[in-house]
Design brief:
This protein is an all-alpha fold. 70% of the residues lie in helices and 1% in strands. The radius of gyration is 23 Å and the shape is globular. The chain starts with a helix and ends with a helix. 41% of the residues are buried.
């Protein structure tokens, strides 16, 4: 029950605290303390009539306690020493029809480095833990903690205001908001968390309605839907099922068709960005007979757009189908992705196809050591048993 309320109320409580304190650090800490207190008291006394308002009031009181202990925040304390908040905590009126998406735009402040914008927003609002964010960025948990700490320090030192940007400034923040939404989706898709994928798709729909003339939101939503349409077939008996082994009868045809239609719409609007290119790849991979040369060509384009080693790893999979596993292995072995589990599982599959059983075994074992879900572990153990 508390977990469900946490998901529903976190953004609202956090938004209220940012609005009162103007400090993202204080807001996050106070909101977390309020949920801890709620877990203790609600289990003993039962739910209050209005859990959301209870959490906002409790969090606000915790923020006041903290700021009273911190004399450097005296000015902010004066702002907080106002009458108790009412049952409903209102944000400023904006054109964004969703509180959480509103806060994404607020946290993706251009004064911060792009990577810091995304990481901070994921931590504060995306429902992801620091280890999950670290995995998404392919860095260690300690490295991500330091990045988040530096971002917060910069916010405090530079006095970066946390306010919802004017409508004409929203497009400048779109890139970071896209990145946040897709990382949330990917985390949910990879870990089998339907709540995260559903939330990312919901917010992407709102973003598309908010900016119907922008091409890339349609590409982003198309990408999510095309992937999500295969979710029911992706895991069988607790084990990951690779694309060519999936039961197509389990694919969500309606989602697939909607994703394809959105991709067509994005292309008609002139979209050529990274999310639309990925959606085009996902659409090709949903075909009965995959056009691998076309997939490889799209990965060439995606590599130009992103410069990402992960994209290059995925391009190698397409190259394996077009030119054979040896050509693909030459690409993979040049990539700096030793801490990335899919690097080792891809390399293992290529070595297996080259009849290098011992090399494949070592690579699968390395991937197994880096796996984060039980479904991945079962898949890798089966691959090891088949060698």
């Amino acid at each position: 029950m508390l977990e469900e309320i946490f998901r529903d109320q976190w953004a609202r409580v956090f938004a209220a605290l940012v609005s009162y304190s103007g400090d993202i650090d204080v807001a996050e800490e106070a909101a977390q303390e309020a949920f801890v207190i709620a877990a203790e008291r609600w289990g003993r006394d039962g739910l209050p009539d209005n859990p959301g308002a209870w959490l906002v009031v409790t969090a606000r009181n915790r923020a006041i306690d903290r700021l009273r202990r911190d004399r450097t925040h005296a000015d902010k304390l004066r702002r907080l020493d106002r009458p108790e908040p009412s049952e409903e905590v209102a944000m400023n009126e904006t054109s964004i029809p969703d509180e959480r998406l509103e806060l994404f735009f607020m946290c993706c402040h251009p004064a911060l480095a792009a990577e810091a914008q995304v990481a901070l927003t994921l931590r504060a609002l995306g429902g992801l833990s620091t280890p999950e964010i670290a995995r998404a960025f392919l860095v260690s948990e300690e490295t991500m903690k330091r990045r988040l700490s530096r971002a917060r320090t910069k916010i405090r030192a530079a006095g970066i205001p946390f306010a919802i940007p004017r409508e004409d400034r929203l497009p400048a923040r779109l890139g970071a908001v896209f990145a946040v939404l897709y990382l949330i989706f990917n985390q949910g898709y990879g870990d089998g968390r339907a709540d995260l994928t559903a939330e990312a798709i919901r917010l992407a729909r709102i973003l598309l309605d908010l900016m119907p003339g922008e091409p890339e939101p349609a590409g982003l939503l198309a990408l999510m839907l095309l992937h999500d349409s295969r979710r029911a077939a992706r895991v069988r008996d607790g084990e990951i099922v690779v694309l060519h082994e999936q039961d197509r009868a389990l694919w969500d045809t309606a989602q697939l068709e909607e994703g394809q239609a959105l991709l067509d719409r994005a292309l008609a609007l002139g979209a050529r960005g990274a999310y639309t290119v990925q959606a085009a790849i996902a659409a090709l991979q949903a075909e009965e007979r995959i056009d691998w040369p076309a997939v490889a060509a799209l990965y060439d384009r995606l590599r130009e757009l992103t410069g990402s080693a992960v994209v290059e790893l995925n391009r190698a999979v397409a190259i394996a189908e077009v030119e054979g596993p040896r050509a693909a292995l030459a690409i993979v072995d040049a990539l700096p992705l030793d801490g990335y589990r899919y690097f080792h599982s891809t390399r293992a599959e290529l070595l297996r196809r080259l009849d290098d059983t011992e090399g494949a075994r070592a690579a699968y074992e390395r991937a197994l050591a880096l796996a984060t879900t039980e479904a991945e572990r079962r898949f890798l153990n089966r691959r090891l048993d088949q060698l």
